Amino acid sequence: MIIGGIVLKCDIHRDKDAIDACVSCGRGICEDCSVSLDAIVKIVSKILIRNKI
Known about the structure:
Layout: E1 2-3, E2 6-7, E3 20-21, E4 28-29, H1 31-50
Antiparallel strand pairs: 1-2, 3-4
């Protein structure tokens, strides 16, 4: 991901280019982190639905 001519790197995996940025803080997210975050969101969603929160 390129922002203002600068290649954004993953905030966790500094050797990997970011494919996106956090909408809250703007930090870079690589493909590996994106997959991990997606899994976490799905788990939390299932818990919320199960508990009717």
